[in-house]
Amino acid sequence: MPHDKLITLSDVANRAFYDGNFEKALTLYNEAIQLHPTNFILYSNRSAIFLRLKCFRKSLDDAKQSLVLNPKWAKGYFRKGDALRGIGKFDKAIFAYCQSLAIENGIETIKALKDSLYHSSIKGMQIFSPFRIFKLF
Questions:
Q1: For 87, phi and psi rounded to 5 degrees?
Q2: pLDDT, position 68
Q3: Cβ atoms of residues 86 and 94 within 8 Å
Q4: Model pTM?
Q5: What total of structural domains would you count in the chain?
Q6: Quick check: is 28 in a domain?
Q7: What phi, psi does 58 have (nearest 5°)?
Q8: Which domain holds residue 82?
Q9: For 7-30, how does the pLDDT look when each residue is reduced to its tens digit (9 = 90+)?
């Protein structure tokens, strides 16, 4: 029975998320995590909700927890990168996106990585700046 309830909660939470009802989705994912605290996908999905709510540190915590539970979860690294970008840590976001790409080559991750590279160069992070290459010649 708990597994059926988990599936139902996840389905309803996903619908709420895609409908833009992030508070409802958050409540449902909180309940789902209580039922199944070792499900890495639940933490990853709740991380996405926190991103939409601009709760970047909470998003980062959930992304990290999803990776503790499954270190080979590419989307966990992607969520971690998004959360780090949200708090302005572009250098660390770049590393997280690269970890995601090492596991799974996704176009969404490549776009996020390019965006973070751009923003890190604007912030003066010369070590990751794509423009630094031209200074070497």
A1: -95, 10
A2: 99
A3: no
A4: 0.80
A5: 1
A6: no
A7: -65, -40
A8: 57-135
A9: 888 999 999 999 999 999 999 999
